[in-house]
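[step 3/7] fold_predict: job queued, chain A
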Amino acid sequence: MKKNFLKCTAAGLIAALTLYSCDDSGNYMMGDMSFERTITFENVVTPKDFVESGGFQGTGQPVILPGQSVSIKFSAGKAQSLMFSTMYGASKDWFFASKQPGIKLFDNNGTAITGDVSSEVLLWDNGTKDNMTGQAESKPIMQVPAVNAAQLMKLNLAFNDVTSEFTLTITNTSGGTAHETPFSPGVWAVSNYNGSQLLNTAPFFTPNALSNPEITDIAQMGDIAKMKAKLNNETGIMTGLSPALVVVYRGDKNPIYEAGKKDDGMGLKEIAQMGNVTKLQNSLQSLPNVKGVFIAGNAPVAPGSKVMTNFKAEPGDRIAYVTMFGFSNDWFYANEQIIDASTKGDVTSGTALFDSGTGIDQYPGAGNHQALFGGTPQAESMLISKVGNQYPVPTVQNVIKVTLN
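[step 4/7] structure written:
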């Protein structure tokens, strides 16, 4: 993943010094009832190829006739692009599709591209029907020669920087040309980005290869049902996790956060926005009721990976933990319920996803102000609260597993 995503300073990568006293040999001077536990944080999210996808059709009727327009609204960060496809209706098996890996949405400086992007569309021959007779054939998908798709279809992009949402307007401009045609209903998708690459750069077809049933249905009949079902199955929010901070403490108040109140400036914001544990680590070590602060991991925790740390405690001690929902503006996972330090087993059920209230939210994994894309959240000052259902975020148990042994 990008170096500026979820990075921790060198100090944050070293297990925190604790407030336990030590004897001359450096061993902790704890009571005879002291014990040691290992806490493990595992990223169990199932990666999906696409962060968003969907279909589009005309207004009042499915097809988009010459002179008519249709709009698609979607979210994206600077590494992502929009892919779409629709049938060239007046053909046996031609279809329009964006250049792969899709319509470029941001320039090299990370500035959104707006206005006319019609040059990003191409016209393809699916190779499954003879263009004259309509008889079945089996040829590779090839670009249709001598037809400028941009003269038949106008594409216009608009962008909302606060929400990181684009609106693509597709207009049928084929009227009066030698290639006048209606457009069929179509499909679109935005690939998931894992911090270094797109997960799928060619969702609909592979140029110069034989077609597939999904794009064939679009090219021959304008039927998007199969392709839309395939995309739906491969679409979902995913995320990395940051290194996790674990604190051993005494008392009834979780020292990391308090729901219903604003961020106190001790360092939760830095974890929730950038995955940086250093400030909170240092702040917690100065509190009288904190007995130790520990860091699990030293790099982003990708799907399928896990990190762990050991900690020492005594009867009566409690623990709390926090890790960033990496593909967000300012979200974090933390234990919602008080956890006795002597607990063993899976404690995921006591974990919740919170919004720190310090940065304006954007679609998870598709927001240009998210650390994933090297951005900085736009500031807000709201109460710490549970993340709601504005976005289709997987349940806690489908993203993170926390275990004590």
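[step 5/7] annotate
Residues 50-233 form one domain.
Confidence is low (pLDDT under 50) at residues 1-31.
exit 0
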